[in-house]
Amino acid sequence: GKNVLKMSSGIQIKPKPAVQKSKTSSPSPESAIKPQPKPSDKLNPKTIDPFDAYSQRHSAFAAIYAKGGIPCRLVHGSVKHKLQWECLPETLPFDPLLLTLAEGLRETKHPYTFVSKEGFKELLTVEGASEKAIPLLPRLVPVLKAALAHSDDEVFGRGLDALVQLSAVVGPSLNDHLKHLLTNLSRRLMNKKCKEKITIALQKLEQYGGKATVAIIKSKIPTYCSVAS
């Protein structure tokens, strides 16, 4: 009987460590489950980081657009794309929207390229655009200058189109700032792909800016031939 008791006690003793093992092993799946959110927590900033790096490399436009800060969206058409504004463009403040759209001209990815280019153009067509745009020229010109200095020919082209559109709206008011922009045009004139487009743009700047514009252009681009001559 003692042997049986010993055996039974032995049996009782043996399961105890087994139970303890199971107890110690049972939290391990729980502990394995607990760390799972941690990698996902680490992944969250990683999904943001590349975007932040992109927006810093190019412009603030992508970040603002992602947050819904641009009150228009791209509508894909069968023939061509167009913008749909959330409200009437004439009701929108030019500061900071026009500046933000100008920043977006330096983007190289779709849809940012289209939205910034088309948004800038359409905003300048609203009633009272001249009065709204002229006070922004000291801040707007450096942004356009950055687009005109860009190594990408398409970015340069968008910057040039925007400059002509702005000139058409603000007229001679742009003359005080024109010298800052002409250096980049002068450099690009050596590029055969850009030469004709730049020449046409300069003629339009003269047309919108008046007689005083010719002297300003010639001071930076001596080879320029006036439309009037």
Automatic annotation (TrEMBL):
Residue intervals passing through the bilayer: none
Annotated region (Disordered), positions in chain: 1-48
Pfam families associated with the record: ParcG
InterPro entries: ARM-like, ARM-type_fold, Parkin_co-regulated_protein
Name of this protein: PACRL protein
Species for this entry: Indicator maculatus (spotted honeyguide)
Gene: Pacrgl
